[in-house]
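[retry 2/3] Zinc finger PHD-type domain-containing protein: previous attempt timed out, resubmitting with same input.
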Amino acid sequence: MMRPMMVLSLENLPKRKRGEVVFKFESFCESGYPTRFTGLSFRENIGTLLGFGTAELTGAHGEAKFWSFQLELNRHPPTFVKLVIVEEDVKKSSCRQCHFCRFIGWGEHLICNKRFHFVLPRKETAIHASRLFIEMHNQKQHLMHGVVHLNGFGHLLSINGFSGGSEFVSGHQLLDFWDRICLALCVRKISLSDNAKKDNMYLRLLYGVAYGKTWFNQWGYGFARPNYAVTYEMYSQSIGTLKSFPLQLLVPQLACQSREIPFIVAKYQAISSQRLVTLGELFKFMLEFKSRLPCNSLAPMDYSGIISENTSRWSAKRVEMAARVIVEALKRSELRWVTRQEVRDTARAYIGDTGLLDFVLKSLGNHVVGNYIVRRMVNPVTKVLEYCLEDLSSVLPPNVNGNNGRMRVRLQMTRVQVIRDLSHLYRQIFGESGQGLLHANETLSVVPVAARMVMDTKHFVKDYHSQGVEQKIMEVAYHDYVNLNCTIRVKIGAKDSTTKQLPSFENVIISKNATVGELKLEVQRCFREIYLGLNNFMVESIVGFEGLDSYLVYDSINLKSSVIIQGSIEQTDITSILEGSNDIVVKCACGARDEDGERLVCCDICEVWQHTRCFGVSDTDEVPHVFLCNRCENDIVSLDPINF
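[retry 2/3] Zinc finger PHD-type domain-containing protein: success.
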């Protein structure tokens, strides 16, 4: 079911050219940078943007063109990423239809002539330039991958910040970057499937409990359509249930699963200046408390603490001995920076297991051992990892051991510890361990049910058209032009057997002195330019207008209402030019009646599709070779036996 829309390879993408324009990543596509985009539609503005890019290569069969933009992330040290924009000729593409449109509910849209891919390749791909693939289903291939159809509807396919393997740019920066591009180019709507994770926690559930909304809601993305027939009302109610669930009911049951839970909750109750009553308040405080801690905060621990913070195949006694040897070696360096190799060589005189030494050296960085802090950093000149001991008294405040117990707790907390506590809570409540809540009692059983509904809500959409175009339309009105929202009603075939009206409208700009005939020609040109199946579209009339073509549009047509243009095409099969046309029938036990992007299986008798999960097949299990739905299976069982 999940076919790639396009698979292209860019061989030997060149490195930065001498004299090539470099744009600032943080301000790219802000107002006036690199230019002021004056068009009212994506199809007008994308050409303007490409004019500032560097033309690269074309596809092997002319199916795509490429432009690149060098973007500066940091000046010191110099860090660059490359934005690649791919113009895909859909007519020459191996897969014309967009299954992402079908999953989000845009299956009734006509197929566009072009699609534009916006790709930030990973650093290693851009540097080595071995192969760069544009694969719609591969979410780990790029730092960012979005696609926009020529009509302005598009999809954000992947964002991979620090948690996804990025070295220099965060997910938040990538979303800001993508949002600026969409707003500047006047896209209409962008969809996404929210599978964002951080530290093995799904953000749609974590942020839903903490803030009552998805992580992507910070950029205006809202509920689009259900997965597994979970409606918006069901989703909102589930979010509210989890966010307001009392801790005094939850913690006693969780304590039976993990003895750490009461201590974790009590610890953050002690740190917080306000009493944490609900699960939402606890998660929100932990997330905000983590964000206030410095990234390089200390991690107080003794030698045995290395075992508790890392998985180790060595005993605690051996780890402690190796750590003691390394610290003593650093003491003899008289608090100067020494290379990792020097420390390792000195320690090998006492510890023969080099694997153990490597493990302890990796674990000791930026930790407190006794009265010293083990510092670790990469030498900016030699690029070699170095270690140093720093006297603890020179770092901590003088009153660290005073009577303020809450301050002592804060000083001992690190981001790593908060993430570890949060992950443990997440696993115990929402992981496999949390399934025990289903059978605890009627009150607690609502938690896993609500969590499942939140997890089943993945499709979100942002409407950019209402945000960025309104001001530009007002600016156009001050000049000698008028903007009309036009759509078409198409008659299919010579016998007018089928009539279809497009679900969306296009902005058509004409002079205030334009005639009705000129409006018809402009609408005909516009829709032919955008949509693949309308290359022979012929305008015939304007619905509700019975005057002559020589009449002025300004005097004859209501400019405040949408204009419907009647026309015809020679195409005989309307489904072949739609984004979501398919002949499958979905009828699942959960209530789903169309594709939602989840895995489906087809009954071998009635050929009706349903979710594998709803049939009891996990997403990690293979689909059975022979599958019968419950209705067909019951029909077979009810048949009279055949007597031979």
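[retry 2/3] Zinc finger PHD-type domain-containing protein: The chain is about 30% helix and 20% strand.
[retry 2/3] clearing retry counter.
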